[in-house]
């Protein structure tokens, strides 16, 4: 399973979804799905824009976690 840390990062910086969407140019719906971890896919351009905006690496935004059922 892929865990998205966007909500934590945004919370630490006290940012709203609309702020991140406006500053990155990413659709607000995409940010919302990532924030709530309901996204099933994301464009690489969006990942790049988020990494640039937050000054982080891809691994800071996303983490692979093994399922305990495996």
UniProtKB/TrEMBL annotation:
InterPro entries: Cro/C1-type_HTH, Lambda_DNA-bd_dom_sf. Signal peptide: none annotated. Pfam families: HTH_26 (PF13443). Residues 6-61 form the HTH cro/C1-type domain. Transmembrane segments: none annotated. Gene3D superfamilies: lambda repressor-like DNA-binding domains. PROSITE patterns: HTH_CROC1 (PS50943). SMART domains: HTH_XRE (SM00530). This is Helix-turn-helix transcriptional regulator. It comes from Vreelandella neptunia.
């Amino acid at each position: 399973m892929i865990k998205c840390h966007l909500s934590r990062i945004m919370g630490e910086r006290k940012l709203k979804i609309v702020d991140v969407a406006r500053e990155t140019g990413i659709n607000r719906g995409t940010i919302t799905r990532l924030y709530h971890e309901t996204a099933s896919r994301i464009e690489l351009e969006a990942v790049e824009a988020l990494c640039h905006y937050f000054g982080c690496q891809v691994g800071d935004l996303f983490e692979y976690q093994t399922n305990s059922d495996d």
